[in-house]
Write a structure and sequence with these properties.
4 domains; CHASE_sf; phosphoprotein; Beta-Lactamase; ATP binding; 11 helices; five-stranded antiparallel sheet; alpha+beta; protein histidine kinase activity; about 550 residues; six-stranded antiparallel sheet
């Protein structure tokens, strides 16, 4: 990676880090502000709701006090005591489910009470327990609280008059507390009416004697909890529940239809946002408020949006900066590449001129030596064409390899070497340099072109073996080449030409920095060439050529 690219990446990374930090800080500030605003709004809504509930409870308790204060008659054993109050209580508040007049009956007053119930038209006039079993007055020593009048009167409520509520598990305790305090008392939450009736509370207001020395009865009002405390609006920011005073781990919740149900306190480990305490019926009630949408969640959403916008802007800025900077870097590289290309083009032209001059000099020498005075024109023409063809072949091979050298076995192709089908090639396929390839190509042509074209000593054409090997390692390695034409002799083999002798004995060895020798054996003609591997391969020439021919790096 270049230094300029590293610098560009560093700058973009710095911009990205700064942008992310700023986005994070902005998101944090937005989170704090939004959560504070949401908490304040939620707190105000809860305070308004709690104030409305408390006002509603105060009005209901006031209704009970007013209703009980209207009773100023000594005759309380009557079944129409609510008659004077009916228009008044409905005008004051009409959201109670049941209002009742409960008188404290002594055992000797049972007969009068039964007569009043019969006079009022109730079907069952027996004074009985809350479960419906009759009460024997002789077994009583204290007064009992008996329902004498109800409002409204319907098929479900007409069975209540005549029942004593002292033994009721919830209402009995409420009457006892009211007698003790002399104030209106509220009951625990209970089912109103049937077993599947709504959950509500009963407020009992004691009716005192003229001198307020004792209670002669009670006015009771039954209220549905959903309408009294737990109104939940679908558009509200919160839902409200009532902590059940009977069970500390239970909450009373009103659903969207106004039906109150029980559920475990703090569902899913969620804690209420606020808890408000209401006073009703001389006792405290706890209302817990749960946020429908947590202000922290909403603040997190807004903060996430702000952070996403900040990050998007950061990425856009980094992208634009990177694009502009990269364009500048690319432009500078293009300029550098153009300058480098021009320099290399000059070097290539110089190298090409050098190689062309060398090739022309070799061709000039070939022509001069081949067409010397006194040479046979046909033979000279054949040799000239073959030598130039050999030079052309090696130049083609070098062009294909971008002058990086030629594989040695490639010089023995049939298109450049005469009688190639009679040559057995044996040796490692090494890559020789361009200079060595030119010398070896002419050398192989001269050797092959002077092999016997007539009959051999035994009536067969010579068999040729071209072999080479590399001896030693490193800088001391030596290239050893051997050409041997079997089944020939000095009498049958065409004599080497003047150019061939010069090439075999002087030009090729000097070009490769080695030595050569040629001789006849009993059955073969042998030519041997030995040269250092460093001149045959010529790493320096290959590197220089490779640098010139290699593509420009961007």
């Amino acid at each position: 990676m270049s230094r300029s690219l590293i610098r560009l990446v560093s700058i973009i990374a710095l911009i990205a880090v700064v942008g992310m930090l700023l986005s994070g800080f902005a998101a944090y500030r937005i989170y704090e502000q939004e959560s504070a605003v949401e908490r304040i709004a939620l707190g105000r809504a809860i305070d308004v709701h709690a104030s409305q509930v408390q006002d509603r409870l105060t009005e209901r308790e006031l209704l009970g006090r007013v209703a009980s204060g209207l009773f100023r008659t000594p005759a309380v054993i009557r079944a129409d005591m609510l008659q004077p109050l009916r228009s008044s209580i409905y005008a004051f508040k009409a959201d109670f489910l049941l209002a009742s007049w409960i008188v404290r009956l002594k055992p000797e007053e049972f007969a009068a009470a039964q007569a009043e119930l019969a006079k009022a038209g109730f079907s069952d006039t027996t004074i009985r327990h809350s479960d419906g079993t009759p009460i024997d007055p002789s077994t009583l020593r204290d007064p009992v609280d008996v329902v004498m009048d109800i409002e409204p009167r319907n098929a479900e409520t007409v069975a209540l008059p005549g029942r004593s509520l002292d033994d009721h598990p919830v209402l009995g305790r409420m009457f006892a507390r009211s007698l003790e305090s002399g104030k209106p008392e509220a009951s625990d939450p209970l089912r109103l009416g049937a077993a599947d009736g709504p959950i509500g509370v009963v407020l009992a207001a004691p009716v005192m004697t003229e001198d307020a020395s004792a209670a002669v009865g009670f006015i009771t009002f039954s209220y549905d909890l959903s309408a009294l405390m737990l109104t939940n609006d679908d558009m509200s920011m919160f839902s409200v529940v009532l902590a059940d005073p009977r069970k500390p781990d239970v909450e009373l919740l009103a659903d969207e239809r106004g039906r109150v149900t029980e559920r475990p306190a703090h569902p899913n480990g969620e804690r209420p946002m606020m808890v408000r305490t209401m006073t009703f019926g001389d006792r405290d009630w706890s209302l817990a408020y749960y946020a429908r949408v947590s202000p922290f969640v909403r603040a997190q959403q807004v903060a996430a949006i702000v952070a996403a916008i900040g990050l998007a802007l950061t990425f856009i800025i980094c992208g634009l900066f990177g694009y502009v900077s990269n364009s500048n870097v690319r432009l500078r590289r293009e300029i550098e590449m153009r300058i480098g290309f021009e320099r290399r083009l000059t070097a290539v032209i110089d190298e090409l001129n050098h190689r062309v001059k060398n090739i022309l000099a070799v061709i000039q020498s070939i022509v001069t030596r081949t067409l010397r005075h006194g040479s046979d024109v046909d033979v000279a023409r054949e040799l000239l064409i073959g030598r130039i063809h050999a030079m052309s072949n090696v130049v083609s091979l070098l062009s294909e390899s971008q002058w990086q050298g030629v594989m040695l076995k490639g010089l023995f192709e049939a298109r450049a070497i005469p009688h190639a089908d009679r040559i057995a090639v044996n040796g490692p396929d090494i890559a020789v340099s361009a200079r060595a390839a030119q010398s070896l190509s002419l050398l192989f042509f001269e050797l092959a072109s002077h092999s016997d074209e007539g009959l051999s000593l035994v009536g067969k054409h010579p068999h040729i073996v071209a072999s080479w090997e590399v001896k030693g390692e490193g800088a001391d390695s030596v290239f050893s080449f051997r050409w041997e034409e079997f089944n020939t002799s000095e009498a049958t083999r065409r004599p080497d030409s003047e150019f061939g002798v010069i090439l075999l004995d002087r030009v090729a060895p000097e070009a490769l920095g080695g030595t050569s020798k040629r001789h006849f054996t009993d059955l073969s003609y042998v030519y041997e060439l030995t040269a250092p591997m460093e001149t045959v391969v010529d790493i320096n020439e290959r590197d220089r050529t490779g640098q010139i021919s290699a593509p420009l790096r961007r």
